[in-house]
UniProtKB/TrEMBL annotation:
InterPro entries: Porin_dom_sf (IPR023614), Porin_Euk (IPR001925), Porin_Euk/Tom40 (IPR027246). This is Mitochondrial outer membrane protein porin 2-like. Belongs to the eukaryotic mitochondrial porin (TC 1.B.8.1) family. One of its GO terms (cellular component) is mitochondrial outer membrane. The lineage of its organism: Eukaryota, Viridiplantae, Streptophyta, Embryophyta, Tracheophyta. It comes from Gossypium aridum. Pfam families: Porin_3 (PF01459). It comes from the Eukaryota. One of its GO terms (molecular function) is voltage-gated monoatomic anion channel activity.
Length: 171
C-alpha cells in the first residue's frame, strides 16, 4: 500500500508492504525551483532495523545543476556538478566526486554529452580507476530509441570490453 502527497513545494510518499512483517519505505522532498532537499529511508519491522537512509540537496540554475548526496546509511558522499554548454548544441559536461568512508576510496568521474543532431545523442565518461564508457543513442521515431553502448578498463586492456545494444519501442 502506498500513500503519496504532492504539493507545489513538497512531496511525501510512504509505502508499506502488506505482509506479516512489512517493510516501510518513506521519502520526502521540499524545495523551490532553485533548491531542493530530500531524504528517504526503509525500515524492516521484523528486524527493527533501517536498511536504507539517504539524504541530499540539489541546486539548479538555468545553465547548471549541483547536488550533494549522503547515501548508503551515511557511508558514502557524492558531490556532482553538471554544466550545460549552449554553444555545443545541447551538450553538457559533468563531474562527480564520490567518497566511500568505510573503504577510504575516492572516485572522480568526468563526462560529457553532445547532441549530434535533433535525434542523435553521444555520451562518454571516464573515472580515475580507468573505466571508460560511451554510448550513442538515436531516436528512430518519437519515443523509440536505439542505443549502442560500450565500456572497458583502460588499465587492463587485456580484458574483454563490454558492449550493449538496446531497442526501446513506444507506440
Amino acid at each position: 500500500m502506498e500513500v503519496q502527497y504532492f504539493h507545489e513545494h513538497a512531496t511525501v510518499a510512504t509505502a508499506v508492504g502488506l505482509k506479516k512483517s512489512p517493510a516501510v519505505d518513506f521519502s520526502a522532498t521540499i524545495g523551490t525551483p532553485g533548491i531542493a532537499f530530500g531524504a528517504e529511508a526503509s525500515y524492516v519491522t521484523s528486524s527493527g532495523e533501517f536498511t536504507k537512509y539517504n539524504a541530499g540537496v540539489n541546486m539548479t540554475k538555468p545553465d547548471s545543476n549541483a547536488s550533494v548526496v549522503l547515501a548508503d546509511k551515511g557511508d558514502s558522499l557524492k558531490v556532482s556538478y553538471l554544466h550545460h554548454l549552449n554553444q555545443l548544441n545541447g551538450g553538457a559536461v559533468v563531474g562527480e566526486i564520490a567518497r566511500k568512508f568505510s573503504t577510504n576510496e575516492n572516485t572522480l568521474t568526468v563526462g560529457c554529452s553532445y547532441l549530434v543532431d535533433p535525434h542523435t545523442l553521444v555520451k562518454a565518461k571516464l573515472n580515475n580507476h580507468g573505466n571508460l564508457g560511451a554510448l550513442v543513442q538515436h531516436e528512430l521515431r518519437p519515443k523509440s530509441f536505439l542505443t549502442i553502448s560500450g565500456a572497458f578498463d583502460t588499465k587492463a586492456l587485456e580484458k574483454t570490453p563490454k558492449f550493449g545494444l538496446a531497442l526501446s519501442l513506444k507506440p
